[in-house]
Amino acid sequence: MTENGVFSRDKVLTIDTMNPTVKNVEYAVRGPIVQRAMQIEKELREGVKKPFTEVIKANIGDAHAMGQQPITFFRQVLALCSYPELLNENMFPEDAKNRARRILQACGGGSVGAYSASQGIDCVRQDVARYIERRDGGVPCDPDNVYLTTGASDGIVTMLKLLVCGEGASRTGVMISIPQYPLYSAALAELGAVQVNYYLNEEKCWSMDLSELESSLAEARKHCNPKALCIINPGNPTGQVQSRQCIEGVIRFAAKERLFLMADEVYQDNVYAEGCQFHSFKKVLFELGPEYSDNVELASFHSTSKCYMGECGFRGGYMEVINMDAEVQAQLSKLVSVRLCPPVPGQALMDLVVNSPQPGEPSHITFMKERTATLSLLAEKAKLTEQILNTVPGITCNPVQGAMYSFPNISLPEKSIKEAKALGQAPDMFYCMKLLEETGICLVPGSGFGQKDGTYHFRSGQPSLLKHFITAFHILRWV
Amino acid sequence: MTENGVFSRDKVLTIDTMNPTVKNVEYAVRGPIVQRAMQIEKELREGVKKPFTEVIKANIGDAHAMGQQPITFFRQVLALCSYPELLNENMFPEDAKNRARRILQACGGGSVGAYSASQGIDCVRQDVARYIERRDGGVPCDPDNVYLTTGASDGIVTMLKLLVCGEGASRTGVMISIPQYPLYSAALAELGAVQVNYYLNEEKCWSMDLSELESSLAEARKHCNPKALCIINPGNPTGQVQSRQCIEGVIRFAAKERLFLMADEVYQDNVYAEGCQFHSFKKVLFELGPEYSDNVELASFHSTSKCYMGECGFRGGYMEVINMDAEVQAQLSKLVSVRLCPPVPGQALMDLVVNSPQPGEPSHITFMKERTATLSLLAEKAKLTEQILNTVPGITCNPVQGAMYSFPNISLPEKSIKEAKALGQAPDMFYCMKLLEETGICLVPGSGFGQKDGTYHFRSGQPSLLKHFITAFHILRWV
């Protein structure tokens, strides 16, 4: 009580009274190193002298921020949808206008400012279904199984929400690859699920070993109830592209062990290495025959944020659910209705991705030129990254077969490891922090993704390459 | 096992094995009645004969779907941001171009397709802060306390996530008004929190009674740990505008009882009734002096979806946190980073709302004209709704002082109540379902928002009015 009798109180909400599961959440991609990078940027703006003039953010796969240009056709349609007065102007090609008209007709009151159906705009879901059918060589796709989402993250978290329950030894376990994309560990921590790690095989270009899956599962069954298996293909942060044979093995494993499959396939167009090809889990599932395709439960996720689009800011995405129990699917539909609808501009963009300009349409040539140029540049960067990194003593980098990152192994000398430990830091965090302070390059330490004990890595996106890695050469002297 | 020895299995994820808290979620605004309305629309398209030719969706506050026109200036800037080539065209006013340039400069790579900072674009948060300061007569606002969100719903759910924990009698309780907006009950169910109801006083135009708050809290303390108090002002679904005196009482109550305040103020520009005025919780808090303004924890929510904007599809919004513990706020910042960022077009739109054309700028006159026309129309509809509903025997409707809905009381005859109960339906659901089947009008039954036992209501948005309510006259004969 204060003197005048009202109160002088502690906070209601403190670190001790708040939800403990939130405290357990970690998200390295935007963690302490990125906080520090933002501070440094501010210091640079304020005129503080540094050994560099700008921060190079290689912490995140943010294509446009790294200079990738948006696809003209997409942005024309989005402008038309935002301000339909432009439909009266001559400056836009007819196919862009037609796409915009079609999207606007499907919106309440003809406005992208209206809520859509919670599952997403009907015609967009239909277009997604047709895209999936084309991609998978005719395997049927029911638009009712397609849910538009706020980026892929939203879909992944929603699926995990449906799956996770139980207490103690019957608590839901979810198998995720290590290294993983930390959305998974963050969502599992928040839901209080048991994170069941399976390690990718770095020696074999980050492939999945069935024996590793088996032993990880057997171990997990001793203390939780593993119900789902998550795969990221092409891999993030590890850049591998799973072979058809590997995917087949994973599906058979999931069927035998009764696991719900979650396939994060947001990098499906980002495949660079010769001999590598993207195989969707759904397609392989159906090729295994009805015993599998009628039974194995699968959710697959895609997004507008990666591939040649790189439109992260629009938060567009979809998920397709296959063999989901009808009652559960009704619960899913109810659950997504609470957030009303995914952002409509992101839905429109998703539509354009799955229904891009066709041969004969006025925008087709430009679209293909832009798409090819972007994917070629990404492929070139992937190759260069691997090559340059492997010339650096102490760094070993697997081929970047796909996705948008490299995840090289770094040998840190004992001295650095000790110094880091004395500071209570993970050694690779210590390394990345030094690199940031001395060169302005912002990477994410491997410990944020998970790695075998005693190994150290970093994840790097693909920014302006030469500048980035030539600097790294110099820096690596101190380790 | 099937004959060829693989498996024929039950689903992994069934209604029995799924997360039970998700099953407890209900969201009436998009519930069974809306499902049925969508079916009926499909039937109408397929040529099925009905006593009406279109479904009138009054289930949701979706302004554009109901014919409200977007603000020209907002859409011009959004088009410019989407397709910056348009900056070279003469067709846009200079102030629209300047706003677009400023937003694009704040985006990574000058693209709305880049991720923003997780908390939202810096300059947008600064603009929000200045807006709040103007609105609240100079009470200071720190942009670091502003978080851009994916609609207001996202902010509300995020705050609840931080608050809810504990088990059994120490489980977090959250006080919500009854009638409530069902996002609250849905989020609390999903988080497994205890929903603590306090009833609004229908006899006194849905005002808040302090004695009701007190008795509700005292009762709740017997079985849970009430930590937060949610207020929706102007009210949804009930349309009341809280008086300054009432808000002061609520703040004093929260201070005395140590409750975290959550003020849902998304209808802050939707105030129609004479003598009514919007008072932000923050402003009143600061007017009560430092004992309160230095202590009471408050989160306030706003959105681009309501008011004169009605831009629901963009999912723009913000929350401001006041007196939040620094460590908790760091956790909040971490938590929002997992979803990467709110949709950037929605952030841009939020910026335009808080930084609209100023006197002297080329778009100012048109902007003010459009804004005033929209708000006047909404005010007129609010008045007409109340008047027309009150002429119907069996219906009593409080003045619609603000927001975008009416929530009239309906007297249902015993016969209808019995019929409904025989069908296992809430009587007002039965009524609304009949109304939908016979007239095509889609309302939400009061039971979806909560109401005193034995009373029945519906919530109606404000669609093309005359058509709507004249039909209702006829229908009401059967009750």
UniProtKB/TrEMBL annotation, chains A, B:
Catalytic activity, per the record?
Answer: L-alanine + 2-oxoglutarate = pyruvate + L-glutamate
A GO MF annotation of the entry reads:
L-alanine:2-oxoglutarate aminotransferase activity
Q: Where is the Aminotransferase class I/classII large domain?
A: 90-451
Primary enzyme class:
transferase
Q: Which domain of life is it from?
A: Eukaryota
User: Can you list the GO cellular component terms from the UniProt entry?
Assistant: cytoplasm
Matching entries from InterPro entries are given as: ALAT1/2-like (IPR045088), Aminotransferase_I/II_large (IPR004839), PyrdxlP-dep_Trfase (IPR015424), PyrdxlP-dep_Trfase_major (IPR015421), PyrdxlP-dep_Trfase_small (IPR015422)
Which protein family is named in the record? Answer: Belongs to the class-I pyridoxal-phosphate-dependent aminotransferase family. Alanine aminotransferase subfamily.
Oligomer status and interactors: Homodimer.
Name of the protein in question: alanine transaminase
Q: What is the native source organism of this protein?
A: Oncorhynchus kisutch (Coho salmon)
Its gene is GPT
